[in-house]
Design a protein that fits this description.
Length: 243
Amino acid sequence: MQTSSGAKLDFGRVALLLLFLGAGWYFWDSPVLWPLKLLVVMVHESGHALATLLAGGAVDRITLSANDSGACLSRLPASMMAQVAVFSAGYVGSALAGAFLLLATFRFRLRRLVLLVACVGLAVMGVLYAGDSITLGFCLGTALALGLAAKYLPDGGVDMLNLLLAAFTALYVAFDLRSDLGHGAASSVSDASLLANLTPVPSWAWAGLWSFVSLALLGLFARWSLRAARPEGLGYSLTSGRR
């Protein structure tokens, strides 16, 4: 497999990413995957929170629910552009998190550092903004797990974990689109619906736009990140042998 620039993609990493995507899609409703789903929900809500702070607003609290939903309650500036940016940041922020996870891990070999940054960021968001004990406990417990993984897993294990987290970020974008294009109470309070209430653009158009942009970003960064390079990578039997 080869990119337009002539650099070959690492077959092992691409195959493993596709395996994670396929398994995650098929088993998405399995309770085994609940912690991963709640983690990407937290990433989504953190995107709203960071955009709020950058726009000059204030974050009151973030809450996570056992049904894989979340909420970021904020006080936003009066500017419509600022509000559009904040409502859109959940879609794009989670995609950027997955994209930079791939790039830092496989392009710049910062596998442990990026996992430690995720650990610290999750702990800080939990301590500062968790709206209940469940959210705080999940944030601190997951941060501890990520920190231990960064310290004790071998390089190949950290690569696999980061690839898994990036895959679930991509899947969450896709399932978020499905939810926002659906009907009922869930779609009526979605980010796309909030954007539609603020602008003349319908919710389905907002959902389609940001989901397309998010998945395009993930695909582009994956293409940059999963090229064959020095003989270091994952070290599993799925490799093509041409690194």
